[in-house]
Description:
Layout: E1 16-18, H1 43-56, E2 64-66, E3 75-78, E4 91-94, E5 100-105, E6 109-115, E7 120-126, H2 128-133, H3 135-145, E8 154-157, E9 167-168, H4 170-179, E10 187-189, E11 195-197, H5 199-209, E12 214-217, H6 232-237, E13 246-251
Parallel strand pairs: 2-5, 3-4, 8-12
Antiparallel strand pairs: 1-13, 4-7, 5-13, 6-7, 6-8, 9-11, 10-11
Amino acid sequence: MTPEPITAATLQPFRHGFFGRQGGCSEGDYRSLNCGLFSQDDADRVDTNRRRVANRLAVASQNLITCRQTHSAHVAIIRDQHSGTGVAADGLVTTVPGTAIGVLSADCQPVLLIEPNAHVVAAAHAGWRGALAGILENTISAMVTVGAERHQIRAVIGPAISQKKYQIGPEFEKLFMTHDSTNRHFFADLEDGTRAFNLPAYGLMRLERAGIESARWTGHCTYSDPTRHFSYRRSQHERRQATGLQLSAIVA
């Protein structure tokens, strides 16, 4: 089975994809397209899954570069095809033709960005910690550093947990309100009386405030579609021992 990613017209003409959990060879809780290098999944199966993603993107498997994500605001610029996968960062930027850069997620926002005129692409992993710390703005700034024009950058947020599935506690909300009181717009009461956070809307706001050309969310909720997407929170609620990670990538 060939992986069939979600794509976005605004990221054309660059080859890209928000890959889900279908089309791989992993088993159990990792079924089937788990691309997490640092998971407890069988390493050979993960390698096969990543090669399938690379093949779908029409790049050599060694030219598919991801990072060791730390929920930070750190961004790495990939200047050659020998950068490996061990760099600690939550954002990657490159201008190297034939290089695919990507991030892993299982509820957090995977964000792919392009600046077509300068041929700059980027990928960012924006969970609540990273988004609050500035990972999206830092990724955009790194794109500008290598030649992108800020006002010509386009961004798309891929599958992420939606507000109706993202219940939070009072300390979480307080943290965001302390940072900026206007963040109250991203919190709402659910029908069961709990409070919930709108992560994709928050990500879109941060992107739009950064002054780029456009930003959108694909509208896919990771929690709500267990057939198509991995979800860390859903796995916790189901008391599963592990969850896989889906890969979102773009080719320069």
